[in-house]
Amino acid sequence: SLNWTHEDPDYLPPEIDTSRPSIARVYDAFLGGKDNFAVDRAVALEGMKHFPDGGEGARQNRAMLFRGVKFMAEQGIDQFLDIGSGLPTMDNTHSVAQRVNPDARVVYVDNDPIVLAHARALLRTDEKTRVLTADMREPEKIFNHPEVEGFLDFSRPIGLLLVAVVHHLGDDEGPEGLVDAYKARMAPGSYLQLTHFCSCAPEVRALEGVLLTMLGTGRARDMSEIVRFFDGLEPVEPGVVHVPEWRPERPVTYPLGLGGICIAGGVARKP
Ligand code: SAM
Asked: Of ligand 1's atoms, which has the minimum distance to the CA of residue 84?
């Protein structure tokens, strides 16, 4: 059975490496989840030492992810490609989308095999949701993946989620060109939701330093660089903002605090 965490706590699939921290598990640790190991918690704890609002940043990002998915589903989007989806948590893209439209289809993509192991256990009986292990740096492999072909219809609008994942690409990996490759494949009327670690305060640079040293990835970029990822698309109000300010359900309290400003993003529509 794939439900290994609950059936045999000592068994780990061989592809899960617990000797080195993984991005998905460190993020889970920041969120206060249980699907992480000592090596991952060590990174989160060191990060929190330099940036005590790290957990709040992750929670705000996740809350904005769900507001964006709900918004897109309400606009009629019924198929979502969630790249760098992370480990399943309290709520997830497919549940949010399917609360608006029970027929909405969701494909989760992550390059960390632990995501597949956990998500499969969760999704065993869900025919509208799929999960696969693939790398966002290989868009064609994702578009042509057997789990995607015939399940998502790229001739119709989709909701593409690149939420808190593009900051795991180095400048030398051409993040803009890569995002453009995804945008090019989206039908008119599609939406892109993207959030990104934002170098809006010196304290964020300290957290970035911990992530780059201990995890090897996690680059903060400034607002203008984040805005550029949406080039060629029509921004949905209020544009690219700190995540708590994106169509909040309750009035936002200012100052936002470091947890509120460390991630920025938005949603935009392909004309
Ligand atoms: N999107 C979720 C959210 O915002 O709550 C999770 C964000 S988490 C910070 C980043 C996720 O991206 C991790 O699960 C990590 O494994 C995944 N990731 C990092 N680099 C990736 C790549 N090259 N291809 C696919 N997934 C990647």
From this structure: 12
Q: How far is the CA of 84 from the centre of ligand 1 (A)?
A: 3
CA distance 90 to 67: 15
What was the ipTM of the complex prediction?
0.99
What long-range pairs does 123-129 form, CB within 8 A, spacing at least 24? 123/94, 124/2, 126/94, 128/94, 128/98, 128/103, 128/104, 129/94, 129/105
Whether CATH 3.40.50.150 fits 4-269: yes
CB within 8 Å of 138: residues ≥ 6 apart: none
Q: Tens digit of pLDDT for each residue in 236-246?
A: 999 999 999 99
- The Cα 88–Cα 106 span in angstroms is 13
| Ligand 1 centroid – CA 49 distance (Å) | 23
Is the shortest distance between the CB of 84 and ligand 1 below 6 Å? yes
Specify the residue with its C-alpha closest to ligand 1, atom 11. 84
